[in-house]
Design a protein that fits this description.
32% strand, three-stranded antiparallel sheet, alpha+beta, Hypothetical upf0131 protein ytfp, 35% helix
Length: 200
């Protein structure tokens, strides 16, 4: 279940600084910055924004299939966090950041999400009250060593029971995400199914 070594994980990561420079260049700095959140960014964005809106993006879906060996688990007992994987669709939240604050917000996002360069940042199209906009999202490749692949119900239950890291347990993280989505009127039935495993 936990066969990937930490050294192997680091060998697959990209240079976070180069990715930040690429994203900053693609954004340009002249327009407001839009950011798409699908899990903890919804309930703990840690940046200021002028507006936010529930949105649905197509071509990507939220999945509890990314190993967490620091925040929600340890190298010896990995936890899980959500990833945005190709296929399907995803309801989440889009945030609007004024262009004057965009550079600082990108720096803070990189310190939070891209320390080890696991995610692949992408610009995804979404409908907002201002029309269609490109929003920055953090996606995961299925080729990444951080991608779990298929997990059994027994594995999910074990992780919910045991995995805990610097930011708390995997179970608390999943519960918080589910409760926040429900408060926004968003039903993620796969998330609810997985969460129910913790009570069996």
């Amino acid at each position: 279940m936990y066969s990937v070594r930490m050294s192997e994980l680091f060998s697959h990561h990209r240079d976070p600084g180069a990715l930040l420079a690429k994203v900053h260049g693609e954004w340009g700095g002249h327009d407001d910055l839009w950011i798409f959140g699908y899990a903890s960014l919804i309930w703990r964005p840690e940046f200021d924004y002028t507006e936010r809106h529930p949105v649905r993006i197509h071509g990507w879906h939220r999945a509890l299939k990314m190993w967490s060996r620091i925040n929600r688990g340890t190298p010896a007992n990995p936890g899980l966090v959500f990833a945005l994987l190709a296929g399907g669709s995803c309801h989440g939240m889009v945030f609007r950041v004024p262009h004057r604050d965009g550079h600082e917000v990108l720096q803070r996002l990189w310190q939070r999400e891209m320390v080890m360069g696991v995610y692949t940042p992408r610009w995804l199209r979404c409908a907002t009250p201002h029309g269609e906009r490109r929003a920055l999202a953090f996606t995961l490749s299925r080729r990444s060593p951080s991608f779990t692949g298929a997990l059994s119900e027994a594995q999910y239950r074990q992780i919910f029971e045991q995995a805990c890291g610097h930011c708390g347990s995997t179970l608390d993280y999943v519960r918080q995400t589910c409760e926040t989505l429900r408060s926004l009127g968003i039903r993620d039935r796969e998330l609810e199914r997985l969460l129910a495993l913790a009570h069996r």
